[in-house]
Amino acid sequence: MGAKQSFEEMEVWKAARSLTHQIYLISSRTGFERDWTLKDQIRRAAISIMANIAEGSERGTNKEFTHFLDYSISSCAEVKSHLYVALDLSYLDTDLFNNTVKQLDSISRQIRGFQKFLRQNDDHPAR
Fold first, then answer.
1. Cα–Cα distance between 108 and 99 in angstroms, integer?
2. Distance, CA of 44 to CA of 79 (rounded, Å)
3. Based on the structure, what is the number of domains in the chain?
4. Could you count the other beta carbons within 10 Å of the beta carbon of residue 41?
5. How far apart are CA 42 and CA 80, in angstroms?
6. Per-residue pLDDT tens digits for 15-48
7. Which bin fits 30, alpha (ψ -120 to 50), beta or left (φ > 0)?
8. Distance CA 100, CA 102 (A)
9. Which domain, by its residues, includes 80?
10. Which of 72, 41, 74 shows the shortest CA–CA distance to 57?
11. Does some domain include residue 2?
């Protein structure tokens, strides 16, 4: 992979950052904004996706990095679950729900692909 890449340069981290921004916008909408518990949970889960990519990238080995990416994938599922609650409570419409879920699914696929790459290069330092 060449020189060590900072997490800010990683496309998957950039996608997670964009998703987090989207989640903040969604959770600021009328109705959703007053549901403090759901708003806090979905925001924390979205932040966790990008934070675990960043934290894992600073670990010493690909094995450790892969472990942190597992957390990111789990957080993607958590955000998705919270989106279903928001949809059921009419905090967002079906189109916004579907577009955000597509974004989440894309990030999950990117992370899994990155994990596969890291596992194939398991005996090397992270990235």
1. 14
2. 9
3. 1
4. 17
5. 9
6. 999 999 999 999 999 999 999 999 999 999 999 9
7. beta
8. 5
9. 9-120
10. 72
11. no
Q: Is residue 3 part of a domain?
A: no
Instruction: Tell me the two tokens of residue 8.
Output: 């800010």
Q: At what angle do helices 11-26 and 36-57 cross, to 10 degrees?
A: 170
Question: Is residue 67 in some structural domain?
Answer: yes
CB 49 within 8 A of CB 76: yes
- Here the tokens at position 92 are 């967002």
CATH of the domain at 22: 1.20.1440.60
Token digits of residue 115 = 């994990």
Entry field: residues in the chain: 127
For residue 60, the model assigns a pLDDT of 79
Instruction: Please name every residue paired with 61 in a beta bridge, in sequence order, or none if there are none.
Output: 125
Q: What is the DSSP string of 65-80?
A: HHHHHHHHHHHHHHHH
